[in-house]
Amino acid sequence: MEKSDRKSEILSVAARLFRERGYSAVSMRDIAQEMDMKAASLYNHITSKQQILVSIVIRIAEEFTVGMERISSSGDSAIHQLEQLIDLHIELTLHDPSVIACLNNDWMHLTDSDLKYFLKMRDKYEEGFKAILKRGMTNGEIANVNLEVIMFALLSTLRTFYLWYGRKKLLSGDELKVQMKRVLLNGIITST
Amino acid sequence: MEKSDRKSEILSVAARLFRERGYSAVSMRDIAQEMDMKAASLYNHITSKQQILVSIVIRIAEEFTVGMERISSSGDSAIHQLEQLIDLHIELTLHDPSVIACLNNDWMHLTDSDLKYFLKMRDKYEEGFKAILKRGMTNGEIANVNLEVIMFALLSTLRTFYLWYGRKKLLSGDELKVQMKRVLLNGIITST
DNA sequence: TCTACAAACTAACATTTGTTAGTTTGAGTT
DNA sequence: AACTCAAACTAACAAATGTTAGTTTGTAGA
Question: Which of B113, B125, B138, B4 is nearest to B60 (CA)?
Answer without folding.
Answer: B125
